[in-house]
Design goal:
The complex is a heterodimer of chains A (151) and B (249). Chain A contains four helices and six strands, in the order βαββββαβαα. Chain A has 151 residues and is α+β, with helices and mostly antiparallel strands. Chain A has a four-stranded antiparallel β-sheet, with helices on one face. In chain A, strands 3-4 form a two-stranded antiparallel ribbon. Helices cover 31% and strands 16% of the residues of chain B. Chain B has eight helices and seven strands; from the N terminus they run ααααβαββαββββαα. In chain B, β2 and β3 form a beta hairpin. In chain B, α2 packs across α6. Classes of the chains: A alpha+beta (151), B alpha+beta (249). At the A-B interface, loops of A face loops of B.
């Protein structure tokens, strides 16, 4: 099962970085997808003090943030109790999202290959973990970062 | 006594305040005349107003009783162009909202044309009058740097979730929150043309102040259904309108 965190405001890069670091540190979390409006493209004429696009660091791995976080989908491993994971995420969010948020349990990341996936990858076998991690128009390597966990 | 708006809640009172031309609106910030001209983007600061040629005095205008009765506003007297300013008000407790803006503009200002849409509101007037009105609108309670947008085009955003710093979404990124100063700066004019120097619009109002100043009924603020008086009047208008409109013979 998945969890969806729906913050009542759109998050900037600093808060996204803090939130992802905290969520990724939890044991039951298998995959995380952030979804939201695209950040404005890099503009060489833009004053750097207004720039929002930056590389964030999640557990030592550098991620080029492409979107402003509007929702976070979290795939919880079946070995863990989803209610416990939800409670821990609730605690993290209470601290980091003072303006409010909703958490829902459900199915938010697709698990089956679509027709578009078949056209895109052909007969190649794509690992189950990568299905549903990005939208059909994007390249997988542009959007997915794999973090190695200790356990 | 003029009756502007029914209701017993703070939202209703705020609506009455805006609509009542005798109510003096609180001045919350200072924006220079030059800043206002830059934001509007209709002329360069210091440039003369463009007006009709030949000047109105030299023109042979047809006789008109209305022209004799009505004293023209300054811009009309000088033959200025008609220009505009357009505002977008966020649904998240912005101080004003389009319908209220129209009602209050028409009560407060002479010689203006107000146009209302669901998410934006435009006011048109002669250029020099527009600058005077715009300054008032930007400096007083009508405006909050974060929840109100000055957008001549690409207005989308009034119903979207706010950014974490409380600023309304703007696809052209005209009003930007400066983290260092805590103030909102206007880096482009209202149609999105880059400004040489940003115009500082001041600090955004805090959530509490916005909730006390807003003219928007919201379930998480003051709900419309809780304002018994306003609902009763609305109900009365609805019933009389329906009955009056039914089978008019």
């Amino acid at each position: 099962m998945d969890l969806q965190v729906f913050p009542h405001r759109i998050l900037g890069s600093d808060r996204t970085e803090m939130l992802l670091n905290e969520i990724e540190a939890l044991d039951g979390v298998k995959r995380t997808v952030i979804q939201g409006p695209r950040l404005p493209p890099e503009d060489p004429n833009e004053n750097p003090k207004y720039a929002e696009r930056r590389v964030i660091n999640v557990h030592g791995k550098e991620i080029d943030l492409k979107v402003k976080t509007g929702r976070i989908f979290i795939d919880v491993s079946t070995d863990f109790d989803i209610v416990e994971v939800k409670d821990s995420i609730d605690e993290i969010c209470k601290e980091l999202l003072p303006f409010g948020f909703d958490i829902d349990v459900g199915k938010f990341i697709r698990t089956q290959r679509t027709v578009t996936d078949n056209i895109k990858y052909g007969n190649e076998s794509v690992p189950d973990e990568l299905i549903g991690m990005t939208d059909q128009s994007a390249k997988l390597e542009d959007r997915v970062t794999i973090l190695k966990k200790n356990n | 006594m003029a009756q502007y708006y029914p209701g017993t809640t703070q939202v209703a009172q705020n609506r009455r305040n805006f609509t009542d031309p005798d109510y003096k609106l609180e001045k919350l910030r200072e924006i220079s005349d030059e800043g206002v001209v830059k934001i509007l983007g209709h002329r360069a600061p210091g440039e003369e107003y463009k007006s009709v040629h030949p000047p109105l005095d030299e023109m042979d205008e047809p006789d008109d009783h209305i022209r004799e009765i009505v004293e023209p506003i300054d811009g009309a007297k000088a033959g200025d162009r008609v220009r505009y300013i357009q505002f977008v008000d966020s649904m998240y407790f912005a101080p004003a909202q389009p319908y209220l803006r129209s009602r209050s503009y028409l009560n407060r200002y002479r010689g203006v044309d107000a146009g209302t849409l669901s998410g934006r509101q435009i006011i048109e007037a002669r250029e020099r009058d527009l600058e005077r009105i715009s300054k008032e609108l930007l400096e007083t309670e009508y405006f909050d740097p974060a929840r109100t947008g000055i957008r001549g085009k690409s207005v989308h955003g009034h119903s979207l979730r706010l950014d974490e710093n409380g600023v309304m979404f703007d696809m052209l990124r005209r009003q930007i929150f400066n983290k260092e100063t805590g103030k909102v700066e206007m880096v482009k004019d209202q149609i999105g043309k880059e400004l040489d120097e940003p115009v500082v619009l001041g600090e955004p109002l805090d959530e509490e102040t916005l909730k006390s100043k807003t003219t928007i009924y919201r379930v998480d603020g003051e709900a419309y259904k809780d304002d018994k008086d306003a609902v009763e009047i609305l109900h009365k208008i609805h019933v009389t309108r329906s009955e009056g409109g039914f089978c008019p013979e």
